[in-house]
Design brief:
Largest sheet: 8 strands, mixed
Distance between the termini: 9 Å
Strand order of the largest sheet: 5-4-1-6-9-10-11-12
Number of domains: 1
CATH architecture: 3-Layer(aba) Sandwich
CATH superfamily: CoaB-like
Number of strands: 12
Shape: globular
Helix content: 25-40%
Oligomer: single chain
Strand content: 25-35%
CATH topology: Rossmann fold
Structural class: alpha/beta
Length: 211
Amino acid sequence: MSLRCLITAGPTREFFDPVRYISNPSSGKMGFALAESAQRQGWVVDLVHGPVAIKPPAGVNAHAVVTCEEMYAVCGPLFSECDLLIMCAAVCDMRPKIRAEGKVKKGDLSMTVEFEPTRDILKTLSAARRPEQTLVGFAAETDDVENYARKKLEAKNLDWIVANSVAKGGAFESDTNKVSLIGRAGEHLSFGPDSKAAVADWIIEQIAKLP
């Protein structure tokens, strides 16, 4: 099965000023492993990734972004052309309401910051999906992982969701992962713990089996 596949990976950043930001510990390793595995399937892969310290796999179309809005701006046009979306990025879901144009001096820093939500990229894209597109999300949780994953699956109108723990010793910044793949029809498959490369191969293998 030959597909055009859009994969997101890594963290995004939201800035207080040009030199300070809020983010998360996502390394991008899981998303990059998925992109490499999908490329080996012979699929055309667009990889949209936040700031990471690893190189994109050879043979994929890599698009580097920083903020949530930048990721959405790149994903929007690519999504309209793709057959499969795997939203693996750990998008920062809040940003400071006010971003200073210049560096705020230490003596002028406020210890109280007001935040606002960033765009829900997956939900926004899902609302514009074509019937034949397949959407796969990731749920990174610290507790009650599968319950929250099922809620996200329904709320964002996904076909599948990959549930994984980011509690201490979990997926973030690790070379290994343990996942459950949950489908909208009630399917439930599990894999790991194993290397993220092996987990990625397993996920792509399950997707490749879909009609």
